Amino acid sequence: MSATEITPTIWLRTDHPVITVNPAAWNYLPEVEFALHHGVAATADVHRPGFYEIEIGENWYYVHVPERLRAVYLVAAQNRLAAERSGLVTHQFPY
């Protein structure tokens, strides 16, 4: 992303069920599904259409909302405070 490129933020709301692609993240499903059913600010991934970052409380999530399927996929989840304490960066993806 260039310095002049602005990452779009949208209001993301859907009644579709949330499915995790990582079984270790199953405990995050209710929070993500509740937020998406009521609407939540989301940052679009400029490199991948249909992918968004959302933050709810202390947690960061990366979700995929495909156009043709009636589900939302929880791709990644992380507690931001725990990540900061451990030195991990949540927003680094291999492109």
> Number of DSSP helices?
2
State the total count of DSSP E strands: 6
The main sheet comes to: 6 strands, mixed
What count of domains describes the coordinates? 1
Q: Give the end-to-end Cα distance, rounded to a whole number of Å.
A: 11 Å
Spans of 5+ residues with little confidence (pLDDT < 50)? Answer: 90-95
Class based on secondary structure composition and strand pairing: alpha+beta
The SSE string, one letter per element, is EEHEEEEH
Oligomer kind: single chain
- Could you give the order of strands across the largest sheet? 1-3-4-5-6-2
As a whole number of angstroms, the C-alpha radius of gyration is 13 Å
For the record, the CATH class is: Alpha Beta
Beta strand %: 25-35%
Kindly describe this structure.
There is one protein chain. This protein is α+β, with helices and mostly antiparallel strands. It has one domain (11-86): 2-Layer Sandwich (YaeB-like fold). The chain has helices at 29-38, 80-86, and strands at residues 9-12, 18-20, 40-44, 51-56, 59-64, 72-79. Strands 1-3-4-5-6-2 form a 6-stranded mixed beta sheet. Strand 3 and strand 4 form a beta hairpin. The longest helix is centred in the middle third of the chain and has 10 residues, at 29-38. The protein is globular and about 30 Å long.
Produce a short descriptive summary.
By secondary structure, the chain is an alpha+beta fold. The chain is 18% helix and 34% strand. A hairpin with a 2-residue loop joins strand 4 and strand 5.
